[in-house]
């Protein structure tokens, strides 16, 4: 094995790229869960975003249009989950699973003509001076725009939940929907908006995967990224900045694992490729063993104004 | 104005009616989908739902397939349904299915080329144990640390898939296979083959086990105290605790049972229809079984019917691919839609629609 082939600068740079899809999906899901809704369909929304974004980017040769279309498509798809769980009061766990299955089917149906095509990629931005800094420049300041958008989104969600009135209402809805309803807030409407936002974020994450990270379309390419995003929300104890940390840690593991494979570590490729999932489980165990969760009190509970 | 009004008690009629309605709605929307794909919708629906059973030319080939496909689905779904009743969400049945196949095949291949009749029963036990072991990971983590079993069981599917890739290239690779990945063919080795009990019917030992599981689950859920405890835990967890039901035991029981059944399903598949351990051995039965469990109303008899229906869509889907060039993914979408429509129409079990103004009581 040749560890010297692993370049720390490139490692950090590719870590940020590999963490971005999960970061998008996780920060969206955080808002959804803060509103008291457990949407297990992240995987399905992500993969729908991945193919819609890819298809639009290839047809229009504009990656940014691809991202916009992906966000819209996944958000619209997530509304089906919203209608089912919020208006028709279906079980959230089952509906989320259904959304994942629908998303996987839908994506491979749309994606058939797009297999094996290369997508137009986003150019890396170049900021005068700081992008040219030695070491730090290529590590942090030579990425494409979406990496920074994802970080800005985390900051935005943090500010929104902590300082804005609407954020307070959203948290109230998530903590006690009955109390929020009694105060006259529209519980269902707030939740629908949160679900819509979560869907859009998952779509962006999926599109980042197919347009930048890979950049290609293959069937089932999300490979559990949506589920890992769900785990990261738990890991983060429902706090935005910790979602960022969680996603980057996870991205780091993924990249390191790939680098070790490339460096020819004599330790089964299969064991390395299962490591992100095993580590996710271990992290979940550590977090849950610690007890204090900070999960929204109404998470996953259905709301009907009459009962 | 249309609004929902809670029923005093769940409607019996709708409990039976919603799956039928959901299938009907899926056919309509699926038909629209096929029309958009430039396939004649009515013909596609006929090929999927009618031809596999009644077509004069090839129904005799496809009918046995119905049992072959329904067997694992029913077996897995029965296990899942008991957990779902208790609010325990094992969605990693696919992983338990894979581990059952690996353990079972490994146990059998250890004795190759012996011809003892004991090998097949031993493989079944090993397969069940493999599934059980894999399900115990989320079960123990949940009871010891309150870790979410949904995420853990699902993550373990990816771990199991990596294991499958590993053993089919290493540990269980056929030494006479010219270095190609994949194990020896179990269905061609007399001692390990999961044969048809009645030739030409598709009825292999796994299908028989699935039918036994249906009866077992029915007795358990309606006549046995443990079944009552499971249902009580799902419907009123606090009441269950006051009644002396220990939640940890229910978690272990539900996950263990579903693991055993999924593991056995994997073994029967690998020793029969699939024949060997290979990288792409698993085909999503573990996930489709979730749909089967819900479509069957989490009731054993319902699951039996739902499993047959879902098997029909698999076979019909393959036929439609062959005859109309319908993409394979559209069947997956079809199945997902079925679950969606079912969950949507389920609202009528507990609520009724009120149209017009309602007076204040």
Can you offer a commentary on this structure?
The complex is a heterodimer of chains A (307) and B (361). By secondary structure, chain A is mostly helical. Chain A has a domain at 20-224. Chain A is built from twelve helices and no strands. Chain A has helices spanning 8-34, 42-60, 63-87, 92-111, 136-140, 145-163, 165-175, 177-182, 187-213, 225-235, 240-262, 269-289. The termini of chain A are far apart. Chain B has 361 residues and is mainly α. Chain B has one domain (38-326): Orthogonal Bundle (ABC transporter involved in vitamin B12 uptake, BtuC). A two-stranded antiparallel ribbon of chain B has the order 1-4. Chain B has a two-stranded antiparallel ribbon with strand order 2-3. In chain B, strand 2 and strand 3 (203-204) form a beta hairpin. In chain B, helix 1 crosses helix 2 (41-49), helix 4 crosses helix 13 and helix 8 (205-223) crosses helix 9 (225-235). In chain B, 53% of the residues are buried. The model of chain B has no long low-confidence stretch (mean pLDDT 85). At the A-B interface, helix 3, helix 4, helix 10 and helix 12 of A face strand 1, helix 6, helix 7, helix 12 and helix 14 of B.
Structural class of chain B: mainly alpha
By CATH, the topology of chain B is ABC transporter involved in vitamin B12 uptake, BtuC
- Report the radius of gyration of chain A as a whole number of Å: 19 Å
Give the overall shape of chain A: globular
| Radius of gyration of chain B, CA atoms, in whole angstroms | 22 Å
Strand residue content of chain B: under 5%
Number of helical regions of chain B: 15
Under the CATH scheme, which architecture of chain B would be assigned?
Orthogonal Bundle
Distance between the termini of chain A: 64 Å
Helix content of chain B: 55-70%
Number of strands of chain B: 4
Largest sheet of chain A: none
Instruction: Calculate the mean pLDDT score of chain A and round it.
Output: 83
Order of helices and strands of chain A: HHHHHHHHHHHH
Quaternary state of the chains: heterodimer
């Amino acid at each position: 094995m040749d560890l010297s082939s692993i370049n720390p600068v490139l490692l950090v740079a590719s870590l940020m790229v590999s963490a971005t899809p999960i970061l998008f999906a996780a920060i969206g899901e955080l808002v959804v869960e803060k509103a008291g809704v457990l949407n297990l369909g992240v995987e399905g929304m992500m993969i729908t975003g991945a193919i819609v974004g890819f298809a639009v980017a290839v047809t229009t040769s504009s990656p940014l249009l691809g991202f916009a279309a992906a966000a819209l498509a996944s958000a619209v798809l997530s509304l089906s989950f919203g209608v089912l769980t919020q208006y028709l009061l279906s079980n959230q766990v089952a509906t989320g699973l259904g959304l994942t299955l629908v998303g996987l089917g839908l994506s491979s149906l749309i994606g058939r003509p797009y297999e094996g095509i290369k997508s137009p990629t986003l150019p890396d931005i170049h900021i005068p001076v700081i992008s040219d800094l030695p070491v730090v420049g290529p590590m942090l300041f030579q990425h494409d725009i979406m990496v920074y958008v994802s970080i800005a989104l985390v900051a935005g969600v943090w500010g929104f939940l902590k300082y804005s009135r609407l954020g307070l209402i959203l948290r109230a809805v998530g903590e006690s929907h009955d109390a929020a309803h009694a105060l006259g807030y529209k519980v269902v409407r707030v939740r629908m908006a949160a679900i819509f936002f979560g869907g859009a974020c998952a779509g962006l994450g999926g599109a980042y995967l197919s347009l930048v990270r890979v950049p290609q379309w293959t069937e089932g390419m999300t490979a559990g990224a949506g589920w890992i995003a769900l785990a990261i929300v738990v890991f983060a104890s429902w706090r935005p900045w910790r979602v960022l940390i969680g996603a980057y840690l996870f991205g780091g593991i993924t990249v390191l694992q790939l680098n070790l494979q490339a460096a020819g570590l004599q330790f089964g490729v299969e064991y390395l490729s299962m490591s992100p999932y095993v580590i996710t489980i271990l992290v979940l165990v550590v977090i849950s063993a610690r007890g204090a969760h900070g999960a929204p009190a109404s998470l996953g509970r259905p709301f009907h104004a009459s009962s | 104005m249309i609004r929902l009004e809670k029923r005093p008690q769940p409607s019996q009629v709708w409990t039976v009616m919603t799956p039928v309605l959901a299938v009907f709605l899926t056919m309509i929307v699926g038909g629209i989908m096929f029309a958009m794909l430039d396939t004649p919708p009515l013909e596609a629906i006929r090929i999927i739902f009618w031809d596999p059973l009644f077509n004069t030319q090839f129904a005799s080939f496809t009918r046995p397939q119905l049992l072959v496909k329904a067997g694992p689905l029913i077996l897995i779904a029965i296990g899942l349904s008991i957990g779902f009743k208790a609010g325990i969400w094992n969605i990693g049945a696919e992983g338990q299915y894979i581990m059952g196949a690996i353990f079972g095949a490994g146990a059998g291949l250890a004795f190759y080329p012996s011809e003892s009749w004991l090998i097949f029963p031993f493989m079944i036990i090993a397969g069940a144990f493999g599934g059980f072991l894999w399900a115990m990971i989320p079960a123990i983590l949940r009871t010891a640390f309150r870790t979410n079993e949904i995420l853990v069981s699902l993550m373990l599917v990816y771990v199991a898939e990596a294991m499958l890739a590993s053993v089919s290239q290493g540990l269980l690779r056929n030494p006479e296979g010219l270095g190609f990945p994949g194990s020896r063919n179990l269905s061609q080795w007399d001692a390990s083959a999961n044969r048809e009990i009645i030739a030409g019917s598709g009825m292999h030992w796994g299908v028989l086990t699935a039918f036994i599981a249906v009866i077992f689950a029915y007795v358990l859920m309606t006549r046995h105290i443990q079944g009552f405890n499971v249902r009580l835990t799902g419907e009123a967890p606090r009441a269950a605790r006051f009644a002396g039901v220990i939640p940890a035991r229910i978690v272990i029981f539900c996950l263990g049972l579903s693991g055993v059944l999924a593991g056995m399903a994997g073994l029967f598949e690998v020793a029969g229809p699939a024949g060997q351990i290979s990288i792409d051995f698993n085909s999503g039965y573990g996930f489709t079984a979730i749909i089967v469990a819900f479509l069957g109303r989490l009731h054993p008899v319902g699951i039996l019917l739902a499993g047959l229906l879902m098997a029909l869509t698999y076979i019909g889907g393959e036929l439609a691919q062959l005859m109309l060039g319908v993409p394979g993914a559209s069947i997956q979408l079809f199945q997902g839609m079925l679950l969606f429509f079912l969950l949507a129409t389920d609202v009528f079990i507990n609520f009724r629609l009120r149209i017009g103004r309602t007076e204040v009581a």
